[in-house]
Fold this protein.
Amino acid sequence: MTEDHRITLQGESIAVSPGETILDAAARAGVEIPTLCHDPRLEPAGACRTCLVEIDGWRRLAPACATVAHPGMIVTTENARIDRHRRSLLALYATDHPADRAASEMGAPDQLLAMTERYDAPTDWGTMPPCREGRPDDRNPYIHYEPDTCILCARCTRYCAEVEGVSAITLAGRGSQTTISTVDRLSLLDTTCELCGGCVDVCPTGAMTEKLPLVREQKPERELEKIRTTCNYCGVGCQLDLNVDPEANDGRGAVVKVTSPEPGTTTNDGNLCVKGRFAYDFIDHPDRLTVPLIRGADGALHEASWDDALEAAARGLLGVKARHGPDALGFVSSSRCTVEENYLVQKLARAVFGTNNVHQCAAT
């Protein structure tokens, strides 16, 4: 950046990079511009119009997310004109949107309602029933679309096309009947959908949400405790947030949903696959092993201590080595283990038992 690559933003001179948008430059300078349709992983669409700003010499307000910051621009992000536009726009959105936050935020927080309250948008403009069609009979087990809370920002369809590259959902219909749909209104199971839940993650209003009863406790996300952890399904190491209801399971707590970290904050950039986002019910599954088991002379499995279990495993492995040699043994580890744990498995195979027959599915 040089002195020639600067704009004036809300009275302050800031440097900009070639091709950088006003929204990105403002975020870097600590100037907040509200938006509903923007996601840093997606190409700007300028669909929601909440990020409009005033540029000296421009007759109309411009969307900050889709307007490149050219050197010499004088940009205003807050004034009476912008405030009037923003409040009117939010009031229009609210005319066919649920007004009860307690009812509409059983899933993710509704950013539209939060923004309406923050900017004191009018709430007396009347209401009308939404005309968007849903897919209540979609038999897919994970993703639900609630058309009443959709604002057609297209973040979900853009994410599906631009990030996942599958284009399983799209905008369908015209005018007030435009909705999020699939080809011939098929179930997501009959489309190219990978059930990654990315559409749930990017939705600003909770119109795309997880299906119950997978989310066993019907509490809004804002009342859940978020715990950052690493997905243990493969060797990629995606970061995710476990959403814990501390009051579930008679006060012992339970994971009731999984959400993504903010884009740009983790190596997986907020993206998850179907297993990382939805396959967490093993945590409290009644068939999950919680103690070591040893098969007895009667052929049944019996609870044992860790010392007894390790001794039985060592005795069995050494017996095979003694009878058939070390290469009769094979060690298979898991990508669900940490790198350090997999390292120890290969050391056990090579240094302790003397065989190179060791592998794990991620081949790290």
